[in-house]
Amino acid sequence: MIDLKLRARKLLFDKLWEQSYIDEKNPRVVWLRSFRDYVIEEDLKGNVAECGVFRGHFAFWINKYFSNKKLYLCDTFVGFIRDELEEDIDKYGTMMTGDTFKGTDSDFILSKMPNRHNCIIKKGHFPHTVSDLDDSFCFVNLDMDLYRPQLNGLIFFWNKMVTGGVILLHDYFHSNLQGVKGAVNDFEKMLGYTVPKIPIADFCSIAIIKAGA
């Protein structure tokens, strides 16, 4: 009975998650489109990336709006790394399971992309999968839910961001995913200063802006 309840909760979660990004009026999608316009107006160089792709619904919009840029898609495509999940459960009381984001694969993701010729799949444990990535970025979406991968994402991409570029962190305001905010706090301690950041009105995400020197 418990197993059936867990499966029912997962099916409901997947359905609600998918529905949240099929509408171009979704606040996060609206923000992304506006930021794309800013990138064009300011002629920001660099490519784009998403870490934590799941079923590719937000990646679809990134690929659509940044149609002339390479899109790096980083994910295990098999769910959370066990040690990273257990760290958040122990430290932050995160209520996730190893099965939460398993219902996806890279071929399925690519089949949804409107400009799939610009998509580069980085499958496996981040950041090991991007150790050979030498590129610059104007936009990166970090949606890996947990403290350790989010911190690694900030560390990896920060010095690769162009001035005016944005790292968007999903779930920063999520009460059940406090590891995301913890990652930002610890990243700022590592840098020795507070990074410019602002909510984007989706009640969940925060945009970190790469300011000039």
Could you give a short description of this structure?
About 40% of the residues lie in helices and about 15% in strands. The protein contains seven helices and seven strands; from the N terminus they run ααβαβααββαβαββ. The chain has helices at about 1-20, 25-40, 55-65, 80-90, 105-110, 145-160, 180-190, and strands at about 45-50, 70-75, 120-125, 135-140, 160-170, 195-200, 205-210.
Tell me what the structure shows.
This protein is of the alpha/beta class. It has a single domain, classed as Rossmann fold (3-Layer(aba) Sandwich). The protein has helices at residues 2-19, 27-42, 57-65, 82-92, 106-112, 147-158, 178-191, and strands at residues 47-51, 71-75, 119-123, 137-142, 161-169, 197-199, 206-209. A seven-stranded mixed beta sheet has the order 3-2-1-4-5-7-6, with helices on both faces. Strand 4, helix 6 (147-158) and strand 5 (161-169) form a beta-alpha-beta unit. Helix 2 (27-42) runs parallel beside helix 3 and helix 6 packs parallel to helix 7. The radius of gyration is 17 Å and the shape is globular. The model is unreliable at 4-17 (pLDDT under 50).
